[in-house]
Amino acid sequence: MEKKILILGSAGQIGSHLTNFLRKKKYIVSEFDIENTANQDLRKLKNKELIKAIKKSDFIYFLAFDVGGSRYLKKYEKNYNFLMNNQLIMVNVFSLLKNYKKKFIFASSQMSNMHFSNYGVLKKIGESLTEAINGISVRFWNVYGIEYNMKKSHVITDLILKGFKNRKIKLLTNGEESREFLYAEDCCKALEVLMKKYNKLQKNNKQIDLTTHKLTKIIRVAKIIEKKFESIGRKVKFIPSASHDSVQLNKKNKGKSSIKNYWKPKFTLEAGISEVFNFYNQNYKKFNL
């Protein structure tokens, strides 16, 4: 029997990639995202469409969250709506996952132990709820890829898109902060592996880190993107600012390698950036750049 998969947050950065990836693998995939229709608002109590979708699913990826890149978090994570949106999403979804005893993966973050961040605190609560009902939490480490919601775009997409608009771009920080970047396709492959190995991994690993374990400074990312623009005859310069990392406060975590026997990332940072850059180079007019 073909596995029926529900992706909550299917229009998001990871959700959109995962939807396409799993459909290519011939899974039966149901999308669920407020971007599709107001009836798919996960904040809505007793949402009949959500109840129906969860009941008929064999496996659920809980990726939905009100979140974006560092620019978005810096602006909104202390706002009332941001806090309430994410709490309501978790209250509704976790209660249904518990009631219908579904196998699921909750999308957490490597920021879940950063208690100075409201986003980190909310993700930690999600991890605790996941463990309480025997699910698996996956901590994502700076996943990047093609994005369509520019208000929530993450750093690599953000820098590429800015490069098509301007010749000189000021970075949000001095660029000295380091991140572990994971390309979206590698992330999707890992999420499929986790679904297939769910019963085995669930016993010993309540939280799983998805990362390349390779730190790269933002200023280095900017240099890679500058060279991509050079390759198409466009001179772009990213200029560091005097600001420091105000989102993670330069805090670094070290991810565990608990699924290294089942999955390893394929794409180097340079190769992943090339994939994203080439897409926007061919389609940038569609994004009103």
Your description of this structure?
The chain is globular, with a radius of gyration of 19 Å. The protein has helices at 13-24, 48-55, 70-76, 80-99, 118-132, 155-165, 184-196, 198-204, 218-230, 269-283, and strands at residues 4-8, 28-32, 59-62, 103-109, 136-140, 143-144, 168-170, 178-180, 182-183, 207-210, 215-217, 237-239. The chain has a single domain, classed as NAD(P)-binding Rossmann-like Domain (Rossmann fold), CATH 3.40.50. Helices cover 42% and strands 16% of the residues. Helix 1 (13-24) crosses helix 7 (184-196), helix 6 (155-165) packs across helix 9 and helix 6 (155-165) crosses helix 10. Helix 5 links the parallel strand 4 and strand 5 (136-140). It starts with a strand and ends in a 6-residue tail after the last helix. It has a 6-stranded parallel beta sheet with strand order 2-1-3-4-5-10, sandwiched between helices. A two-stranded parallel ribbon has the order 6-9. The protein contains 10 helices and 12 strands. The chain has 289 residues and is α/β, with parallel strands linked by helices.
Q: What labels would you give this structure?
A:
289 residues, alpha/beta, Rossmann fold, six-stranded parallel β-sheet, two-stranded parallel sheet, 10 helices, 16% strand
| Secondary-structure class | alpha/beta
Biggest sheet details:
6 strands, parallel
Tell me the Rg in angstroms. Answer: 19 Å
SSE string, helix = H, strand = E? EHEHEHHEHEEHEEEHHEEHEH
Q: What is CATH's topology name?
A: Rossmann fold
Poorly predicted spans: none
| Highest-level CATH class | Alpha Beta
Report the helical percentage: 40-55%
* Name of the CATH homologous superfamily: NAD(P)-binding Rossmann-like Domain
Count of runs of 4 or more consecutive helical residues: 10
Mean pLDDT: 91
Sheet-strand content, in percent, reads 15-25%
The total number of structural domains is 1
